[in-house]
């Protein structure tokens, strides 16, 4: 199995722009794009917690198994 981030789809479902998310979670746009495109090999739990809090979701909504 492979763990991947379904963050981009979640943003579309919730109608939230990447710019708004970057500003709210204090992320650089490049960093967010890497998360959205699954170009990260290690997930920062602090960032994951910020994403979940802002998006009002759980890690299960962001992290998926393939």
Automatic annotation (TrEMBL):
GO terms for molecular function: DNA binding. InterPro entries: Cro/C1-type_HTH (IPR001387), Lambda_DNA-bd_dom_sf (IPR010982). Gene3D superfamilies: lambda repressor-like DNA-binding domains. Residues 7-62 form the HTH cro/C1-type domain. This is Putative transcriptional regulator. It comes from Hespellia stercorisuis DSM 15480. The lineage of its organism: Bacteria, Bacillati, Bacillota, Clostridia, Lachnospirales.
């Amino acid at each position: 199995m492979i763990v991947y981030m379904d963050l981009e789809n979640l943003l579309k479902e919730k109608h939230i722009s990447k710019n708004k998310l970057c500003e709210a979670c204090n992320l650089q746009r490049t960093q967010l794009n890497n998360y959205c495109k699954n170009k990260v090999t290690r997930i920062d739990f602090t960032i994951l917690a910020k994403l979940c809090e802002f998006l009002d979701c759980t890690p299960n909504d962001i992290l998926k198994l393939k």
